């Protein structure tokens, strides 16, 4: 069962959107990344904020999410 804090932190997906993959990223694995699918487009959420929603497949979305996190570094934790 989810606690209140976990429920509040969950990303609210728009209608028709399905969660495809969720993982932790970054050097210390503190950054939450969620990949979702809506029709034939994939979206990436980093720490609950949408990064982009125009990827053609989940693999590209994951690759670009990791590149973004690498560029931003640990500044995303703030």
* Classification by helices and strands: alpha+beta
Radius of gyration: 12 Å
| Percent strand | 35-45%
* Main β-sheet, spatial strand arrangement: 1-2-3-4
Major β-sheet, in short? 4 strands, antiparallel
Number of helices: 2
Uncertain stretches: none
Task: Determine the mean pLDDT.
Answer: 84
Number of strands: 4
Q: Judging from the principal axes of the Cα atoms, what is the shape?
A: flat
How many angstroms separate the termini?
A: 28 Å
Helical content band: 25-40%
Notes on the protein architecture:
By secondary structure, the protein is an alpha+beta fold. It is built from two helices and four strands. It has helices at 4-9, 58-72; strands at residues 18-25, 31-38, 41-46, 49-55. A four-stranded antiparallel β-sheet has the order 1-2-3-4, with helices on one face. Strand 2 (31-38) and strand 3 form a beta hairpin. The radius of gyration is 12 Å and the shape is flat. The mean pLDDT is 84.
């Amino acid at each position: 069962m989810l606690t209140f804090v976990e429920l509040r932190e969950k990303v609210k997906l728009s209608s028709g959107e399905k969660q495809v993959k969720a993982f932790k990223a970054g050097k210390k694995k503190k950054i939450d990344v969620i990949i979702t699918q809506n029709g034939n487009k994939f979206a990436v959420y980093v720490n609950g904020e949408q990064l982009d929603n125009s990827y053609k497949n989940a693999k590209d979305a994951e690759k670009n999410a990791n590149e973004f996190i690498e560029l931003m570094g640990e500044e995303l934790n703030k």
